[in-house]
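Fig. S4 source data, part A: sequence.
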Amino acid sequence: MKPIDLVVLVIVAAVLVVAVRRFAGIASGKKGCCEGGGSGAKTFPKAHITDTDESHYPYEATLAIDGMHCENCAKNVTNALDSVAGTWARVDLSAGSAHILCKDPIDKDAYRRAVTDAGYHALNFS
């Protein structure tokens, strides 16, 4: 066996090990498909919404979001949106959108920035 063949074999084996570990994590539910958020994505801590009375949130909007592929993605986006003060967001993965409730007037730029910082694409508000 030539030295170059050995190097190629080691590289292929290493990639295979990483791929199998990743697949096992996703299959077991311990990791999402997008674990880590991608390049430059910010991690947002889970916000604990204590005020769940919708009447306390007079402003609302729906934001279309691109790039979510799994429940982990939806959680990341929810945490990012909930990090904006006075916000309670509910993300619908299948619809590719977030319903945003807010105690203050909707700051579209703040929500777009939060989604972008989390590594996803804020599309349009309705």
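Fig. S4 source data, part B ends here. Strands lie at 59-66, 87-92, 97-102, 121-125.
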